[in-house]
User: What shape does this take?
Amino acid sequence: MARVYNFSAGPSMLPEEVLKTAAAEMMEYGESGQSVMEMSHRSKEYQAIFDEAEANLREIMNIPDTYEVLFLQGGASTQFAMIPLNLMNKNGKADFIITGQWANKAYKEAARYGAAREVASSKDKTFSYIPKTTAADFDPEADYVHICMNNTIYGTKYNTLPETGDVPLIADISSCILSEPIDVTKFGMLYAGAQKNVAPAGVTIVIIRKDLLGNAMDITPTMLNYVTHAENGSMFNTPPCYTIYIAGLTFKWIKKMGGLEAMKELNEKKAKILYDFLDNSKLFKGTVVPEDRSLMNVPFVTGNDELDAKFVAESKKAGFVNLKGHRSVGGMRASIYNAMPIEGVEKLVEFMKKFEEENI
Ligand SMILES: *Cc1c(COP(=O)(O)O)cnc(C)c1O
Assistant: This one.
């Protein structure tokens, strides 16, 4: 068996230990005589798996009891509608910062339900930076302010949160969840699809302040109302059972690795190897301003489309896959989520050095 280094933006690599545990438990989980895939979600065994996963997530992220943790379906994209349906409910307006395609999709979907306002955007420079805002930029009457914390496609990340006063801040953390500590209390709500840093696709984690619940618009479908899921322990209907089980294994792995402080240290080390190389390379260069660089998604270009294509093809042959950049940026993108081992980044940089020598 030869496993590649997978730099995919998502679905992406999972920790090898998680895959091995899942494999070992595939035919029989514990002494249940069945796979987790085959279990009733109403069984005692499954409830224990679910409860342990939630407890570990709360512990790792330091989530206070004043927040509900929900395991939902529909991906982060369904949140783009659920958020306005549930929360754009007092003054019917919300503020958005447009830092890329995901942020823009959240904004456009919200505009179907109320007055969505673009406060700032970095579209002028292909989203290569995080626009600066001050408290005065936000409407104090807005029901919430929405940001995309880590911009998967463009490789930017918020290092300083916008100052929104009493207006709840909501962040899409799909591609940076569990990559470093985050102060949950600074947010009204956080949400993330699982397939970047947690588990296979299929579960969406929602962390929401309890006092924000209960004011959904009348038109809100039952399944899109957070209260439905909060009141039923995320089991109003069948949850994505197996994906939640894998998420639980990932949470245990993170605990064993030393928690989010340790993940941050490791992720900074990995990203630095790549950024240091890009900053000194005569062939490759990063596309993001240094102060807003992501720890998770690192886009880079040579400036020559043919050379970019050659690099992607040759790197694939050498066992580094999914390095082709998003079509809106071009070039390459290395997604180096939690599960990417440091050797993967070191070997990629070695390969890039060799490619540079041969092609300059
Ligand atoms: C991948 C991604 C999404 C879309 O997630 P789905 O689960 O496919 O809906 C949304 N936001 C961010 C930041 C992402 O990286």
In short: The longest helix spans residues 259-280.
